[in-house]
Design brief:
- One of its GO terms (biological process) is glycolytic process.
- GO terms for molecular function: triose-phosphate isomerase activity.
- Belongs to the triosephosphate isomerase family.
- By secondary structure, this protein is of the alpha/beta class.
- The protein has a single domain, classed as Aldolase class I (TIM Barrel).
- 43% of the residues lie in helices and 15% in strands.
- The chain has 11 helices and 8 strands.
- An 8-stranded parallel β-barrel has the order 1-2-3-4-5-6-7-8, surrounded by 5 helices.
- The radius of gyration is 17 Å and the shape is globular.
- The protein starts with a strand and ends with a helix.
- The mean pLDDT is 96.
């Protein structure tokens, strides 16, 4: 049985005092969580600081991005080896904000996936459609294309021990969220799409939902059979709200 993962994406938010308060609150609220994995992804400048704060907790350290190179003249970029050295294990790639603001294409994101796998890190691959694509009935085609970029480069077995985060772009930071039934339909499509090539890979891959997940809507989302936790944005900046989401995931999958 898949163990759900709830991951907090802090995005471009934070300070040392904020990180201290948030991590202190999370470690207190989540000390006895066993049925759900928990990860947080602070901005890169706080990774080392947060890693030290997490030293005695069961919370996983993640990061929000990685470069395709391990070293060289790539000013401002962060390598997989650097992330690994500071203790980050789950790395978000392909987030719609990176795709939009930094013009990252499917091929480039697949290359990031490859470097993470080579480095022994866990890719958290974000996929999802825009509002226009959703209204045009292209949700499945868009998700398949974004997944297939990885399969074309690495093969389907690359999805062993990885995470896919389905995040409809129209639901990120908007307050809108897919209904549990809508989200489940897409999650099932994603799993079935992988299963066409390898059923065992499809069965074990963690597929999170993301897009305005909060402590009010999380429980119903997590009752769906193919939703394995969440990638959480704004609500991950509040210890009580984030902890409630984690506990909802644990309860739903018992």
């Amino acid at each position: 049985m898949r163990k759900p993962l709830v991951m907090g994406n802090w995005k471009l938010n934070g300070s040392k005092p904020m990180a201290l308060d948030l991590v202190t609150g999370l470690t207190k609220h989540l000390a006895n969580i066993e049925g759900c994995d928990v990860a947080i992804a602070p901005p890169v400048v706080y990774l080392d600081y947060v890693q030290k704060l997490l030293a005695d907790s069961n919370i996983i350290l993640g990061a929000q991005n990685v470069d395709t190179h391990l070293s060289g003249a790539y000013t401002g970029d962060i390598s997989a080896d650097m992330l690994k050295e500071v203790g980050a294990t789950h790395i978000i790639i392909g987030h719609s904000e990176r795709r939009t603001y930094h013009k990252e294409c499917d091929k480039f994101i697949a290359e990031k996936f490859a470097i993470l796998k080579e480095s022994g890190l866990v890719p958290v691959l974000c996929i999802g459609e825009t509002e226009a694509e959703n209204e045009a009935g292209q949700t499945e085609a868009v998700c398949a294309k974004q997944i297939d970029a990885v399969i074309d480069l690495l093969g389907v077995k690359a999805f062993n021990n990885t995470v896919i985060a389905y995040e409809p772009v129209w639901a990120i930071g908007t307050g809108k969220s897919a209904t549990p039934a809508q989200a489940q339909a897409v999650h099932k499509f994603i799993r079935d799409h992988l299963a066409k090539l390898d059923a065992s890979v499809a069965q074990q891959v963690i597929i999170q939902y993301g897009g305005s997940v909060n402590d009010k809507n999380a429980a119903e989302l997590f009752t769906q059979p193919d939703i394995d936790g969440a990638l959480v944005g704004g609500a991950s900046l509040k210890a009580d709200a984030f902890a409630a989401i984690v506990k909802a995931a644990e309860s739903a999958k018992k």
